[in-house]
Amino acid sequence: MSEQNDAACSTLNVAYKPMATLWLIIQREFVSNVLTSRFMIGFLICLMSTAAAVFVQVEDYEKRLAAYHIAVQEHQETVRTWDLYSQVNPKAHRKPNSLSIFNVGMEKSGADMVSIQLATPIWEKEAQKHGSDNPFLSIFLSIDVIFIFKIVVSALAILFAYNTISGEREDGTLKLVLSNPIARDTLVIGKYLGGMLSLFPIVIVSFIVGILIAYASPATDFNSADLFRLVAVLILSLLYVSTCYLLGMLLSVWTKEATTTLILSMFIWGILTIVHSNIATFSVMKFSLYQPQAEKEMLQHIEQSWEDFKEERDAYLLKKWGYKYPFSAISLIGEGALAISINANSPGELGFGEFYEIKPIHIVDVSKLQEVLGYQEPLRIDYANQAEALLKQREQVEERNRQFAKDISRFSFADAYRFAVGAITDTDRESYQDFMRRARRYKRQVVDYLSGKNAFSARAWLSNDQGTAEFRDLPVFQNPHTSLFQSLSRASSDILILLAWNVILFIGMYVSFLRYDMS
Amino acid sequence: MIWHIAKKEIYQNLTTLRFVLMIILLPILMIANALIYGFGDAGYTAEIRDYNRKVTQGLSHIKAYAAKGLGELAMIGPSEIPKYPTQLKFCADGADAFIPRSITIAGARGSRSGYDGGVVEDYRWRELWSLEYLPSNHGGDATTLIKIDWVFIGVFMSFFVILFTFDAIAGERARGTLSLMMSNQISRGQVLLAKYLGAFATLIVPLLIGVLMNLLIIYLSGSIPFDSGSWLRILGMIGLFALHISIFIFLGLFFSSRVSNAITSLVWLLLTWVCLAFIFPSLLGLFVGTLDPIPSIERISAEKRLQLANIEDEFQPREMLEVTKLSEAPSVDNPSATRHWATYFRRRSETRTRIADARVDQQLRQVQLARELTQISPTVCFQYAMEGLANTGIVSYMNFVKQVRRYRDTFIDFIKTEDRDDPNSLHIYPVREGLSQKLVNPDVVPRFKEHISYQSVFFPVGLLIVFNILFFIAAQLSFLKYDLT
Q1: Which residues in chain A are contacts of B398 at CB distance < 8 A?
Q2: Count of domains for chain A
Q3: What is the pLDDT of residue B141?
Q4: Is A56 within 8 Å of chain B by CB?
Q5: Is 0.90 surpassed by the pTM of this model?
Q6: A395: closest chain B residue by CA
Q7: B15 touches chain A (CB under 8 A)
Q8: What are A20-26's contacts with CB under 8 Å, separation 24+?
Q9: Do residue A340 and residue B117 have CB atoms under 8 angstroms apart?
């Protein structure tokens, strides 16, 4: 504490120089913070839990990445074995995002793979996960660096801020300090900057240690854009810390006793970081005006639309060619045993594929069947797309509720911080939905590709005896990262909320302190 | 004297800001809990409706296939087995979204048909049923949220306990009242006990009021029926709340008597609390992937594919044009062909069952390990005990899996016994034609009945008591050594 005294003494001697005084106050604040036990404990806990969280998440990321590579490779091998057009079943794989090590977001709860089947609508719920070896482990709360910052560092910031004003008033040091030629605003700014100066090292060191641990893993290869994103996350974290600190300071100005400040600010902290968004989300989901259509009802609807498809098809076949079933188009031209089989999806499933196998094919004439297929398969895909639109509608209602819940949660700066970081690390729901959107678009591409080749009416749709199907230039699924600019613009509203909180809290605190009653 | 101090403590607490905050927040949380779980269409009502529908489906399924003969029933097996939904999910949600609500039955159909020189040969078959442990699909992104159940409220209570006890000793010392109190004829142990009782009473009474409000709302909403058993379990849960609160009071008294400054004790307590409530449970839970790795899902499914493909290659059941082991369809007159088919079905079903059972066992073992590790946190013990009483969480699923497997054996035994009684049967299991064709009385077919076991409660409760004793001793020792001046 001698440092403090030195600071106080030297203030007496110097004439009023705002910058020099400000610097002195910052120094004093910094030293008195750093020497406390809370700094040591907080630093240690923050550092260790960050390191542990990154360690765990890196391991998880490595596993997911390996699973992704295996899946992609397996898929490529499967593509090579296809020799019929009807076998086409490309997969849209989602590459794990290396930044998910720091902010998991939707990364693990979302699907990693969408199987593109022509006659199956793409539905978020049916999309598959391949990364999780043990889905039951999800019952343990997934913890990442952002979670630790959101909970631990914010608590720490409040623990640093609660006694800045009320504590000093209680000790009587506030009066002493202000008896010097120091303007109140200099004091406030000095205290704020001093607090920041002692909190920032905790955040920065923990974050850098986290990055180093992640960097040490051979699986991660951060490019410059990733590093830029990480820096942006760090800056946001600092901004968040500053918000929490300002909240603590404001309450410290408003209350008379340090204990009251602490209790009140811990209470508000608990509500903002833990309770608020949970209650908001649940109430919106439960009591929203827009309730999505019941799933069973919708699935029945889709089943019905498959029946409609069959009806339309059969009516057309009967009218145009006089066939009762597609099979009637086959005519026998040779002698021998013949096996015809249909493989259809079972009625409970969403999809409605039907595949024909005719063995041996040389004793029959399938040219008429090819014509039928050329008509029926595009129709089937149309019906699948209609079903997809239905499913999408339901998703949109859910999405609107989710958005509403998000808007309410945003009110808390802890959640604004979470959303902003999610947008920047590209692991939020938005980027997950980009993936689903791209998967749907990819399906259209594949269909266009096939119809461009007249694949539906080709002989290679059902038999490889006269040339196999050719998939050499099959479009490849692309799922690029959201561009940096777009990520930033997605995060912008939340960043603005964080900034606004900072400004409001600072002004509130500043004004209140100017009117503060010392006695 | 003890009572005197305790009373003083209570009065003092009642007038503080923290008490006001608690008395506001606790009912809000309790009411939010009641509204979220008690109202709306997605809660218990929907679950029990779903369950009843599945049970009815199961009965009509058995009836339909029993009428087709024993052979048919033996191959298709029972239908999807639902897990009984618990009423007390609002008390302990137990990450319910990740717990599958049923175990499904896998079975495939196959057929071959063709014209063999003008003679139509057509054979359709059904593969032997096996259990399929599908992961839950109730997920979505809401699963990443913390659920507002009683367990969460309990965790929040522990936070308030900290706010109430951090200055119990150090604060009094700072004000100088501690020395005054000790100048009376009273031992240090008694002071500590009085402080404990005072804090306990201040905390438990608002909690009880909150619980009553919560139960009243849920009871009046009428969406969750309570029987005497569930009232007992709720009583047990209140006991768990008390145990949990008591641990944190001792912890607070311990830190408060370790340090000279109340604020330092609060800092320590808060950081301890964050670690116990959030950091330890999740980090330790995630570490098991490193401690006890299990083969990846890709490897398992590749292995399964390979083994099934080998069987397929050996038997080639769909092949019409070449001669294979299964060229002849099974029939009562052709025992050797029937035996071939039985081998085919048995090998497939054994492979599938072995791989699926081993997989889910590995996963559950990993979770079990994680649970054991995380129990070093009293908050987690509290959570597990609550889940045990509410019959939610992963343990209830483990019990369910065990019972379903037992049911599988019962069902197969039933088929074999019934078959043995029929003299006309070939007694070749498992193939439709090799078994008795007589009709089965659907009422004698064994049904699945779930027995709820509360065994999983004992260990965490034991740990909670141990924690209480440990922290009591720690607080006692630390206060005995405390420097009053």
Answers
A1: none
A2: 1
A3: 53
A4: yes
A5: no
A6: B140
A7: no
A8: A21/A180, A21/A182, A21/A186, A21/A190, A22/A186, A22/A189, A22/A190, A22/A193, A23/A190, A24/A190, A25/A177, A25/A182, A25/A186, A25/A187, A25/A190, A25/A191, A25/A194, A26/A190, A26/A193, A26/A194, A26/A197
A9: no
Task: Pull the structure tokens for residue B277.
Answer: 């409530």
Alpha-carbon distances, residue A72 vs A90, A114, A121, B306 (angstroms): 10, 12, 22, 19
- A144: nearest CA partner in chain B: B283
Q: Is a pLDDT exceeding 70 seen at residue B121?
A: no
CB neighbour list of residue A191: distance below 8 Å, 6 or more residues apart: A25, A29, A164, A165, A249
Structural domain of A441: 86-142+293-398+425-480
Sort residue B214 into left (φ over 0), alpha (ψ -120 to 50) or beta: alpha
3-state secondary structure of A343: strand
Task: Show contacts of A17-26: CB within 8 Å, 24+ apart.
Answer: A18/A183, A18/A186, A21/A180, A21/A182, A21/A186, A21/A190, A22/A186, A22/A189, A22/A190, A22/A193, A23/A190, A24/A190, A25/A177, A25/A182, A25/A186, A25/A187, A25/A190, A25/A191, A25/A194, A26/A190, A26/A193, A26/A194, A26/A197
Query: Are the beta carbons of A132 and B117 separated by less than 8 Å?
Result: no
Q: Is residue A328 part of a domain?
A: yes
> Where does the pLDDT of residue A4 fall: very low under 50, low under 70, confident under 90, or very high at 90 and above?
very low
Residue A494, judged by CB atoms within 10 A of its CB (0-12, 13-18, 19+), counts as buried
CA distance B373 to B387: 17
Range of the domain at B362: 2-112+122-480
> How confident is the model at residue B51, as a pLDDT?
92
Q: Which two tokens stand for residue A411?
A: 């009110």
Number of domains, chain B: 1
The pLDDT mean for chain B works out to 86
Structure tokens at B31: 């009411």
Contacts of B183 by beta carbon, 8 Å cutoff, 6+ apart: none
Which chain B residues touch A278 with a CB distance below 8 Å?
145-148
Q: How far apart are CA B8 and CA B44, in angstroms?
A: 44
- Structural domain contains residue B295: yes
Q: Please give, rounded to a whole number of angstroms, the shortest distance from the CA of B425 to a CA of chain A.
A: 32
Interface touch A60/B289, C-beta < 8 Å? yes
User: How far apart (Å, rounded) are the C-alpha atoms in residues B197 and B4?
Assistant: 11
Domain assignment present for A333: yes
Q: What is the DSSP letter of A153?
A: I
CB atoms within 10 A of CB B410: 13
Is A135 close to B137, i.e. CB distance below 8 A?
no
Those residues with Cβ within 8 angstroms of residue A503's Cβ, 6 or more apart along the chain or in another chain: none
What is B275-339 written as a DSSP string?
A: IIIIIHHHHHHHHHHHHS----HHHHHHHHHHHHHHHHHHH-TT--SS--TT-SPPBTTBHHHHH
B175 lies in some domain: yes
In a domain, A16, yes or no: no
The mean pLDDT value for B316-333 works out to 77
CA B440/CA B148 separation, integer angstroms: 49
Are residues B298 and A70, on separate chains, in Cβ contact within 8 Å? yes
Ranges A126-140, A366-380, A391-405, B255-269: which has the least confidence? A126-140
pLDDT in tens, A491-518: 999 999 999 999 999 999 999 888 877 6
Quote the DSSP letter at residue A476: P
- With cut-offs at 50, 70 and 90, classify the pLDDT of residue A11: very low
- Residue B444 sits at the vertex; the CA angle it makes with B419 and B405, to the nearest 5 degrees, is 80
Report CB contact under 8 Å: A339, B285.
Answer: no
Could you tell me if residue A457 is inside a domain?
Answer: yes
**How many angstroms separate the Cα of B482 from the Cα of each of B14, B253, B479?**
27, 11, 5
Which of these, A340, A343, A39, A390, lies nearest to A201 by C-alpha position? A39
Is the residue at B117 inside a domain?
no
